[in-house]
């Protein structure tokens, strides 16, 4: 930088205002509000795509399954970006950890990993525990949904472990876990849609 030249301006995080007992309001510029609307749409499409992928058994329609599955997980990436913006004003370390863990879930999904793969289970548990606890404690998204997400972070590995240890060859936990994940994404889409008018 040249001597005497003004220092470059750094982007400031969204401002946060909160009242005791009320959900904090994060002041977003119109560009970010539009990004949240797009993220809500991407989240809904991701949930629908992952639900649709269950109609194609990998052993019979492998190509279609992996295409639809990849599309669904790919749509989650812009959702992670908007969630990072939402989380940053309230929990900086939690925002980073949530984004990293969520990205790991996407990478595992893009590779066609089953829901019961241990690596995918660990990444999803860290992701959901981090963001669910953040929502429950700060209220940036509904606290009830935060507690549900935290509970799912525990239930997913538990269900997979019970199914694996039960030694039942006629039952797989992959389908019910995938359906729950798809429903979670659709619910998240409804909650991400901005509800406050922008001046």
What is this structure's SSE topology?
Layout: E1 15-17, E2 25-27, H1 30-53, H2 62-74, H3 76-87, H4 92-110, H5 118-138, H6 143-165, H7 174-192
Antiparallel strand pairs: 1-2
Helix pairs in contact: 1-2, 1-3, 1-7, 2-4, 3-4, 4-5, 5-6
How many helical stretches? 7
What is the string of SSEs from the N terminus onward?
A: EEHHHHHHH
Fraction of residues in H or I helices:
55-70%
Strand content: under 5%
List the strand order in the largest sheet. Answer: 1-2
Distance between the termini: 37 Å
| Structural class assignment | mainly alpha
Shape: globular
Task: Provide the low-confidence segments as ranges.
Answer: 7-13, 17-22
Kindly state the mean pLDDT as a whole number? 83
What's the β-strand tally? 2
Biggest sheet architecture: 2 strands, antiparallel
User: Nearest-angstrom radius of gyration?
Assistant: 19 Å
- As for the number of domains, it is 1
Would you give an account of this structure?
The chain has one domain (28-192). Helices cover 66% and strands 3% of the residues. The chain is mainly alpha-helical. Strands 1-2 form a two-stranded antiparallel sheet. Strand 1 (15-17) and strand 2 form a beta hairpin. The chain is built from 7 helices and 2 strands; from the N terminus they run E-E-H-H-H-H-H-H-H. Helix 1 packs across helix 3, helix 3 (76-87) runs antiparallel to helix 4 and helix 4 (92-110) runs antiparallel to helix 5 (118-138). The protein is globular. Mean pLDDT is 83; it is low at 7-13 and 17-22.
């Amino acid at each position: 930088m040249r001597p005497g030249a003004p220092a470059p301006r750094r982007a400031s995080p969204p401002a946060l205002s909160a009242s005791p007992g009320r959900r904090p309001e994060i002041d977003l510029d119109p560009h970010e509000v539009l990004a949240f609307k797009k993220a809500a749409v991407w989240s809904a499409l991701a949930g629908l795509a992952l639900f649709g992928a269950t109609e194609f058994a990998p052993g019979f329609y492998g190509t279609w399954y992996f295409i639809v599955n990849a599309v669904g997980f790919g749509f989650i990436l812009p959702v992670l970006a908007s969630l990072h913006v939402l989380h940053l004003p309230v929990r900086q370390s939690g925002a980073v950890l949530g984004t990293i863990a969520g990205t790991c879930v996407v990478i595992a999904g893009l590779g066609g990993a089953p829901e019961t793969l241990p690596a995918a289970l660990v990444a999803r548990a860290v992701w959901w525990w981090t963001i669910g606890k953040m929502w429950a404690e700060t209220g940036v998204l509904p606290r009830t949904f935060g507690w549900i997400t935290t509970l799912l972070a525990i239930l997913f590995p538990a269900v997979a472990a019970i199914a694996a240890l039960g030694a039942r060859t006629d039952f797989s936990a992959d389908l019910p876990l995938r359906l729950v994940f798809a429903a979670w994404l659709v619910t998240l889409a409804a909650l991400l849609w901005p509800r406050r008018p922008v001046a």
